[in-house]
Design brief:
Layout (H helix, E strand, L loop, with lengths): L8 H7 L16 H14 L13 H14 L1 H15 L34 H33 L5
Helix pairs in contact: 2-3, 4-5
Length: about 160
């Protein structure tokens, strides 16, 4: 059963050839499509990894694959590929939107110590990475939806 955010067959056809293959030395990998659907669900809902529905497989597998692909550049390669295809087709708008939100400090913040606080094991780093991955994920989903739509239109003889 597909949920609302799962990859369609057309989107999967675009992504599947770009994904890493198992090296046959360390056992079988869980189905990439199932794991990616778990990652999409996690990013779309904001739930904890442990709260992933069982249909996506073990949450640890989904989390480890997401972390591995983030570290080795797989997500970046996927995004670059779909951006290149969209740009060559003229479907990518390179306009940049800058958020200039201004936040006022509390009056008691004026005399705060200047030494930075000790790192908390990467807690703040994860939030920044998550927002980058969510933006990349949304761009990827929008491109895939457009690519599938163009493929349907070009395959439909009545559209000519």
């Amino acid at each position: 059963m597909l949920s609302r955010g799962d990859l369609t067959d057309g989107e999967w056809a675009v992504l599947e050839p770009l994904l890493p293959r198992s090296n046959k030395r360390c056992g079988r990998w869980r189905d990439h499509r199932q794991v990616i659907n778990g990652i999409i669900h996690r990013l779309s809902t904001g739930c904890q990894w442990r709260m992933l529905p069982e249909r996506f497989g073990p949450w640890k597998t989904v989390h480890k694959r997401h972390a591995l692909w983030s570290a080795d550049g797989t997500w970046e390669r996927l995004l670059q590929h779909v951006q290149a295809v969209a740009d060559s087709a003229g479907d990518l708008d390179w306009n940049i939107n800058v958020d200039s939100t201004s936040i006022r400090a509390h009056q008691h913040a004026a005399g705060a110590p200047t030494d930075p606080p000790p790192a908390l094991g990467g807690a703040s780093k994860g939030a920044l990475q998550r927002s980058v991955h969510v933006r990349a994920h949304m761009r990827l989903r929008l491109f895939l939806a457009g690519a599938v739509q163009r493929a349907r239109l070009s395959a439909d003889p009545a559209a000519d």
